[in-house]
Write a structure and sequence with these properties.
Blueprint lengths: L2 H14 L9 H22 L11 E3 L7 E7 L1 H4 L10 H13 L3 E5 L10 H11 L5 E5 L2 H5 L4 H17 L3 E5 L14 H22 L3 E3 L6 H6 L1 H4 L9 H18 L19 E4 H8 L5 E5 L7 E2 L2 E8 L54 H4 L11
Parallel strand pairs: 2-3, 2-4, 4-5, 5-6
Antiparallel strand pairs: 1-3, 6-8, 7-10, 8-10, 9-10
Amino acid sequence: MGRARRARKIAQAAAYGGGVGVAGLGALGALGYGILRVEAMMARRIVGQPFEGAPSDSGTYGSGSGSPVQFLVLGDSTGVGMGADHAHQTIGATIAHGIAAFSGRPVELTNVAVIGAESPGLDEQLERALAAVPEPHVAVIMIGANDVTHRIDTSVAVRHLEMAVRGLREAGAEVVVGTCPDLGAIEPVPQPLRLLARRWSRDLAAAQTVAVVEAGGRAVSIGDLLSEAFSAEPHVMFSKDRFHPSPAGYARVAAALLPTVSAALDLFGERSTPTEPNLRRGESVGPLAVAATKAVTQPGTEVAPAEVGGQSRGAHGRWAVLLHRIRPTVPAPALPASTTPAPADDGPDDGRPTDDAAYAIVDPEPAQPAQPVDTEPAPSEAADGPTEDAVLR
């Protein structure tokens, strides 16, 4: 079964109940997890001892006129910022600085993420978040790695993520989800665990993407975003436990999310002038499950709801747009804590920001009308993708 079909099946199981086995792999998953336990013990000796705690990044960022943008962060240790040295180095803080700079308004960040959280834990996080901020403007969710390593049934994990997205959307928030990272490319992890973990994490990421878009959110593939950078400078991109990102690593992940968060908040007028998919960059409009499958092997890719001919669905389900808003191979430094907000209309005429301290943008090319392809991916598209030896975490 191709990944697009698996993703759709998992999302359907999440919506209607029932399960499809741990990590969606049934007997293979059970066998794999037996190997996982042994290999994980070996990996822990190599990676080293974990450390406790993370800086608290909740607070106000930037300045300017107008009421603060209410920004929520939910998820696991990546959302918390474990591995960062200071509060302004986390994903949430970096994105908050970017929003403040592009909007000219202060940003009030409320972070309810929990170290070690699994997707079922989003229920409690959502309750706490909305109790603190009843009317959020935007929320970022980082979740999935612990679902893979802790043997959470994929359909169960996806169901709780979808409920969290719907709950936030009902509260009026735009929602951006950083999907499960590719755990199969952590350098210290030996084979065959690495290959199994890659398949599990990519299957979960694809299913998450389908569920998030169906619920009205936007998904951004984290995948192996730090892979090349890790190979070149592992001491720079990863923290002292060789597992969680360092401040530089978090800046790179934030750089992948900030363009989508900015678009969701309409900071550059995309609602009045939507961005047309650029076919030369591999952007497209097509069936959601196909877009989700492509995104998991292309870190930094955004998948969001779309319409074709005024219709949100085609013969193969919901339409989705796939966009490459950044160059994943270019690391982006964190915005400094002293960032001065700039008016939102200071950007170029095409509505795209030029502040490359916030994130790297793909060189603009003439946009072409998207041609939707209402088909399943070819076998090569549904494959598990390359097996690079290094990745995010």
